[in-house]
Specification:
The structure is a single chain. This protein folds into 2 domains: about 220 residues, Aspartate Aminotransferase, domain 2 (3-Layer(aba) Sandwich), CATH 3.40.640.10; about 100 residues, Alpha-Beta Complex (Aspartate Aminotransferase, domain 1). Helix content is about 35%, strand content about 15%. A 7-stranded mixed sheet has the order 2-10-9-8-5-3-4, with helices on both faces. A hairpin with a 4-residue loop joins strand 6 and strand 7. Helix 2 packs across helix 7 and helix 3 runs parallel beside helix 4. The protein is globular. It binds pyridoxal-5'-phosphate.
């Protein structure tokens, strides 16, 4: 096979090559059974081991205490927008921090079941940063935030103190990319398809106290307690999806866990932002203090050159660099599995493009 292209897609996104090779190797014979993982029962002994390992690895990597449950659900982070609101707001009030497209979607679902207070917003700054002042309500059932906005490329560097009000975070695009203190949150959720696997699995980390507040009147599938009690096996889960998550988590552990992964992520983002800061030809959209280390959103001063840039990038082996359709411009998503070498090669390409067109 010729050299694989560098994959900058925002999600589903790049996976570690070693993980994909392992999937390929085991595909026709999972766990010595002679069956493929895609034809394996979710009640089998082999898959039971996978599920338990995925849960344990999640706890280890994120340093999660026994006060929390870890479950693997379906429906994406998008279903969590609704499930969080239906379970914990249920006709009452919740605070939401508005930071961009994904926060907006969470807010929209919140409004279908209760009273949403926008406790802070950076809309007036075109979502180029996260807010720094908050107007929390004392009677909110929870505060919801989006730790990393995948489309506009901004990320919380520190999280607000919400006192006794539970903090709930959508961490879809920066889950397990850096060390965080899980105890600051009562719930964290994330679609797996960026940093920890492929689509079809949603990780939910939820504090035991939060579960006691859930809305008992909801249909069975929409209650967290259902999935907790049945250890993510109430219905047929994405067997291959959880199997892949478990392999990626193993890769994270083998590569030094959060500390080492965060260090590399910092380095990758720093070289790219340093380059953007050093040129007049390109410019980054996020304000420095809120820059995402996962999704680097930038433009060429002469916007007309961007289509050509995307085309030439592709021809040179850099795929998925076009910005989100709602925003335009360019975006380099450099999740955990994206190598530092790929970022450096991409910068060489950018320099070359600048030389030819600047
Ligand atoms: C921050 C964030 N939240 C939520 C979602 C929606 O996730 P899903 O497609 O898994 O529902 C995405 C998808 O890209 C995202 O980036």
């Amino acid at each position: 096979m010729s050299k694989r292209p560098y994959n900058f897609y925002a999600g589903p996104a790049i996976l570690p090559l070693d993980v994909m090779k392992k999937i390929q190797k085991e595909f026709l014979d999972f766990d010595g059974t002679g069956l493929s993982i895609v034809e394996t029962s979710h009640r089998s002994k082999g898959f039971d081991t996978v599920m338990k390992q995925a849960r344990e690895r999640t706890k280890k990597i994120m340093n999660i205490s026994d006060d929390y449950h870890v479950v693997f659900l379906q429906g994406g982070a998008s279903l969590q927008f609704s499930m969080v609101a239906m379970n914990f707001m249920n006709g009452k009030k919740a605070d939401y921090i508005h930071t961009g497209e994904w926060a907006k979607k969470a807010i929209k679902e919140g409004k279908t079941v209760g009273d949403v207070n926008i406790a802070a917003s950076s809309e007036d700054k075109k979502f180029s940063c996260v807010p720094d002042t908050y107007n929390f309500s004392s009677d909110a059932q929870y505060v919801h935030l989006t730790s990393n906005e995948t489309i506009n490329g901004i990320q919380f560097q520190a999280f607000p103190d919400t006192g006794n009000v539970p903090l709930v975070a959508d961490m879809s695009s920066d889950i397990m990319s850096r060390k965080i203190n899980v105890n600051q949150f009562k719930m964290i959720y994330a679609g797996a398809q960026k940093n920890i696997g492929t689509s079809g699995v949603t990780l939910v980390v939820i504090h035991k106290d939060m579960v006691t507040r859930e809305n008992a009147k909801l249909p069975t599938m929409l209650k967290y307690s259902t999935h907790i009690e049945k250890e993510s096996l109430y219905n047929t889960p994405s067997v291959i999806g959880i199997y892949i998550v478990n392999l990626v988590l193993g890769w994270i552990v083998d590569n030094g866990g959060m500390e080492a992964i965060e260090k590399t992520n910092n380095e990758k983002a720093a070289v790219l932002y340093d380059y953007l800061d050093s040129t007049e030809f390109y410019y980054g959209l996020a304000e420095k203090q809120s820059r995402s280390k996962m999704n680097i959103v930038f433009r060429i001063k002469n916007n007309d050159l961007e289509d050509q840039f995307v085309e030439q990038a592709k021809a040179n082996g850099f795929i998925g660099i076009k910005g989100h359709r709602s925003l335009g411009g360019l975006r380099a998503s450099i999740y955990n599995a994206f190598p530092l070498e790929g970022v450096k090669d991409f910068i060489s390409f950018m320099k070359d493009f600048e030389k030819k067109n600047g």
